[in-house]
Batch of 4 targets.
Target 1
Amino acid sequence: MKNFLKTTYIIVIITIVSVVCFCDQARVAARVGNSVITIADLKAAFTANKQQLQKSYSYTEVTTKLQELIDNRLALFDARKLGLDKDPQFISQLEDFRNGRVYMTVINKLVIDKILPTKLLRSKYQHDAKEFRARHIYVPIKDQANVSQNMQLLKDLRGRVLRGEDFDTLARHFSKDSLSAGKGGDLGFIKWGDRDWGEAFYQQLFTMKQGQISRVVQGAKGVHLIKVEQIREIPQIPFAQKREELQRSFYREKGKLLDSTFYAQVARMEKYYNLQRSEEAIDSFLVYIQAAKANGINFQLEPLRFLDSLAVQKRQMPLATFKKGQYTIEDAVKTFDKISERRRPAFVKKEALQEFLQRNLPRKLFIKYGYEKGYHLTKSVRNEVAEEKNRMMISAARQKGLGEI
């Protein structure tokens, strides 16, 4: 089976260069049967792991990545021909992925975007795209009484620099930064937020041009006079691909506000769908777990075996109901099965099961809301689902030894 489909594909390498700069992204890099791999596809492959994009790549890096794309394209052809995507388990896994993306879309729209708007994320994205080699003259502020004195000192030094005196020499003589004063105030290359100098320092630095002398800046712990020696661009992956990483960078700072906004949305969603939990069904679920244990079935380790042991009526017992839907014992068990064994809660006491439902019922409602709003049909979700489907099919083909030359 490994080779029986290979003769149906003709691979023609159109262009491989020692260095790829991605300047002509429509250009064809290879043909695999009737399918083409473009320079844009290569670029996407290099940024697929959300690492920073380099300006160029070596011959070996390009040919290795191109061969990987060719192998994947062959594996995908084989998987489609064999109908691997028709397998019920495959369909279920893909549906789980789609639900996850719909859920995250809802969370982004109702929670994260409210606290971390696109404007804020783009600002950080732009900051991450540059680093500055700078010098500074720094004087700490010990108390408010000497603020004006130190500000005036640096204003005087700024005037001397503008009149032609050497910044390096003045920094060695006047700067109180023990790490840089002996080097003429040289800070090396720094990125936004590298050091604890406060927002004002970086706001000033990132508006400056090469060779420019700053105004006197009051930072977090003192006052600075800055000179920019060099500005270096840092290649970035596209903003859309980096968005989630940018959001995570703010989670610690905005954590409490994000949590309160999330739980407020949970409350609104439960009210909107008129969520009703069934204490009777929850108690019955716990009884079923104990009965299964007496029969040698460990729910903690074998949730699906436990589910198979239940009669249909018991499996379909609703633990909670909501407008046009319900969350059954079967739903709970299948959700529980997807949790790694080490992280599964023990349903010995009712409180543990109630906490499990408190975490998972909102997800069910958010997903339902997302489908009602048509978020599963948005371009971003459809593209992500299509990419995941291809990845799963390639993986399935690999397991059967297909797609290799």
Target 2
Amino acid sequence: MKPPTFRPVALAGAVLTLFVSSARAQREGAASDTAPEPNAPITTLAPVTVRASADASAGGLKAPYAGGQVARGGRIGILGNQDMMDTPFSITSYTNALIQDRQARSVGDVLQNDPTVRMARGFGNFQESYFIRGFILGSDDVAYNGLYSLLPRQYIATELFERVELVRGATAFLNGASPGGDGIGGAINLLPKRATNEPLTRVTIGGSSGGQYNVSTDISRRFGPDNATGVRVNAAHRDGDTAVDGEHSKLDLLAVGLDWHNRDVRLSADIGWQQNKLRGARPNVALDATVTAVPRAPDASSNFAQPWSYSNERDLFGTLRGEFDITSAITGWAAYGLRRSSESNSLANPTVSDAATGAASVYRFDNARRDSVDTGELGVRGKLETGPISHEWVASFAAFQLRTKNAYGFDFGNQLPTNIYQPISYAQPAFTGTAGFGGALDDPRLTTRTKLTSIAVGDTLGFLDDQL
């Protein structure tokens, strides 16, 4: 009997086409003991494409358009991954290819490619904030694989995610209410990195003006039968002065992504750590109530920050996600995530009192913060038909809890004169007797507890063979 023929073909990373003779089909089926015809025809099976999933779902990542920088769709909240032509919501999904091509370092660097988004800073600190269609969204309201507020609160490095998915417009039904009450103009979801089908070892070394250097590594491997187990490790280190005089930035991170699947089950887990330190970073500028004109911008390299000012942030976060095919038409999922973070800073933001001369004043303002986030979701989705109408239905429950410990100290009564064009530097002043405090900076106490729960039920109806 002629042995079966197997012919693997590499296509798009992982496409396997099998040519199997009818002799093998008879032998495995044991339906007949009759030998096949010597010249039995060879049957060509349809190609089977296996892709690594970035969200532990059967659909995996949506394919990119030509050029690879933007994908054809993305996660539409509880509706799951959707092609942008199959959903009424406005979505753009920026890929890792764009991150690499543009040398983007943060979420803000990626979103500056979008005409509907403007990046800004938080109130008084160095947190990235995003204005989507004119409405603010803080970085602590960014979702990570569908779960809110898990990534670092002030700065999210690009080594931590695979894609940036931007959904414009009201999204509370799709994603639940954001913890900070933002998201009126849209939502941002970041997809974690997963092991690629082909082994990946990437080392990136770079530098920038001012003496800043960076080194990062991205390693991906798959193991076991059918490459069912995947491991992806990302590490990065940035350090040095920046293009702004006297400004220093240092960042360290480590992230590990794991995934496993069989025919009916898909599991994934992520754990990450990031530490971001700024020293002498140029701060926000405020205008005194008497100033009626906007001062001209200072020289781009000059620094009106006090040399003792700093901002430190350290975050540990993780997620677990699983998806199970209950039947061929019904799938259930569960996810859990946590973040434990600490922040401290000592700021001296100038307030301009004379727009023409740049005269200003500063005072010392210190903060300490500890965040504890726990969040999760349960859901089930499926497909059915009622006569000529198709249904893609979904039901979901989500819960979120944030506990914030916060303390601050400000010395508004000890104003120090300076100038945004000719800055005056001081040694760090001690707090005076007129300073105000909220809690103990070395032992912040619980100040805020946020609890959110969401229940959602949805049904997408299709008419005229899903043309409508």
Target 3
Amino acid sequence: IDEDGYNFSNNLNIVPGGTLNLPINVTNTTGTTAHYEVWIDWNGDGDFNDPGEMVADLSDDGAANFGQNTIAISVPQNASTTQPIGLRARLSHTDNMSPTGPALSGEIEDYLIMIGCKNPVCLPLQFTIK
């Protein structure tokens, strides 16, 4: 089994409260069910252990058919917009993987993504009056 990765274009417009649509690009010629699990570190604390950070848990039919071509992920309103945050995708014959640790098959892909601000500004604004 293999995934060719995501192509994060600059025009994904990932914003708090929006939707991130990730394409599924997986090859599975094994005839055995593959499991595809994705995590995003929404708060930027360096781990995938917080509630809501597992954003996808899919299983195929043994031939890379997950019943959908994209994963629609709701971006939380409080997602970090001040730093790159991690996205981890794991593909394996092992189900219910954790974001870290070994699996008997498959692979992991890691990416850093940026959550942008809603136009015209990021809220909340902070002012200092002198």
Target 4
Amino acid sequence: WGPYEIPQWGTKSASWRGTPITWIGNTTISYDIGKTEYLSAAWRARAWLVALKYADRIITANSGNTNNFSVDFYQTPRASQLVSNTLANLLGDAVFRKDIRFAPYIRAWIFEDARKRPVAAVWCHKESVDSGTDKPPVASADFGGSLEAVIDLMNQERRFQTGRMDFPVMSAPLFFRGRPGTLRQMISAFEHAHLQGGSTLSPFHISLNPATPEYCLLTLENVLSGEFRGTAAGQHIRIPAQTKQTIRLPFREPLTADRILSCRFPLTIRSEEGASWPLKGLDFQAFYAKKVPDTVTLKSLDWNSLPRLELTNECLKKNDAYRAFYRIAWNTLGLFLEVSVKDSHFTHREFADQRKRWDNDSLQVYFDTLANARASMTDGYDDDDYDYAIHPDAGGRNCSVWRNRTADQQLTLGINAPKDLTIAEDIPTAFLRTREGYVYRIFFPGKYLLPATMKKGSVLGFGLTANNADDPALPYPKRRRNARSNATIPGKDCYNKPRLYPALLLWE
């Protein structure tokens, strides 16, 4: 976590990949570093707090020190250097006592130091708060007369009032230290803390996926440390702390295999105390795939018997003549995919670096195997996602599968799991040239879609992008390139965007 974020120079604070990572030299370009210095210090503190929470089983913890541990002639410290000082002063002799979740995206970790003083570290880990696009939420807690000090990450004491206190929950941890022997009061204060009115953060982790073609299941996970009582979708709910409850919601029309259905569920959660939260981000698209016999192979499958869908989302440059269609089916052994492309000019340059071959006439196939991206608190891939690329050869005679990204081996085949950035020689493929263009056919064995299970009722996020590049050897911006995808937002492709994949229900 470096102190600089300069997109024009390719510098990125939170990255271990690429050159430069955070800064290309050991010099400091300015004292006026800005928000990134604050944010990198906050991230460092939050990482070290995890180590302190589990200090009974962690021998040592270290953070990368790129451009963070050099000082100037006057020995002026940087924010990241003060972090370790603050944590050591407050928690160096402390023991972790309790993890309290009084609101989503909020952490309140209670420690107790050697003098029997409780110390609470409180922060917000919502990405939009980190980036500054949202203001920090404001919390309210009643400490009675138990507080001794409120201390910020730079080890500075802040003014506070006894009794009930309102305070912002920021990216950088804020510390509340109680008087000796007041651990129980500190725990009670945060167990009964709440965000002030107007907060858009609901008390639930929410997921919504098809269960059958007729209805889907809304899952509400109470992320708080206390019971929630209220209503959702017209039903009374009572959900104990950190447990789940599901609600059946009918589709306005049944899912089919021959078109993508847009599903909208405008819902509001209301608590018994009168607070309400409109449930946002529940809209999604869905369809189902038909089952075929286990005896069917890539060659013997009657593809024309399967419904055909079109990739209608046009990405990058407009090209009305370029179109792509797909068919999909499954059995207990795996998943079949055919993509037929109308393209007047086939071309594929076999770059020496396999990772660059997607930037051709090519196909990219994505799986969110647990269909959980729309419910995630963060964007981008997680540990159960796959990113496959299908590359024809330059002559257009066959194609191969490139494993750009695979699911975590602990969710798949353990030490036998295939590696990222390898050619999948054991995934069957076929590539056919036609009068109008070309056709890809791929069979993904079930073991290479784990942790998804090939059975009726399973749901996967399924992303698909067909790329077209008539002149891949030309440099940008002379290269003419466009693509078609099934991403749920117009103009978007599917790379690293599992939240935008339609839900694929395995049915019969």
